[in-house]
């Protein structure tokens, strides 16, 4: 988006400056009276067709899918460890003898 301020003696002259420089598609987004005339702020939105379309980078998208898959696997593993830890804590605080508690913990 292109935004520009115009200064002129009156609104008619300011509007002419806007049309001459930005064209008929420009939008007036602000105006105010100043010493010696008016200040007009106008904007011109770029055409979407003028912007280059996004070309997908297949290598990056493939890497993103692999990374997302690793994250899901890691979260599942973490959740299973949390369930195991919760089970151990439940056993410890349940009043059972310590010898009855399964203390096998896998290394990480």
TrEMBL record:
Q: Determine the domain of life of the protein's source.
A: Bacteria
- Keywords assigned: Cell projection, Cilium, Flagellum
Q: What is this protein called?
A: Flagellar biosynthesis regulator FlhF
């Amino acid at each position: 988006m292109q935004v520009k301020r115009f200064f002129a003696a009156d609104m008619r002259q300011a509007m002419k400056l806007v049309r001459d420089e930005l064209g008929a598609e420009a939008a007036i987004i602000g105006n105010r009276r100043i010493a010696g005339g008016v200040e007009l702020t106008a904007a011109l939105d770029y055409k979407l067709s003028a912007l280059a379309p996004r070309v997908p980078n297949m290598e990056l998208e493939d890497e993103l899918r692999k990374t997302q898959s690793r994250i899901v696997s890691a979260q599942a593993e973490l959740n299973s460890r949390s369930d195991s830890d919760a089970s151990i804590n439940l056993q410890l605080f349940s009043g059972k003898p310590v010898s009855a508690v399964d203390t096998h913990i896998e290394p990480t």
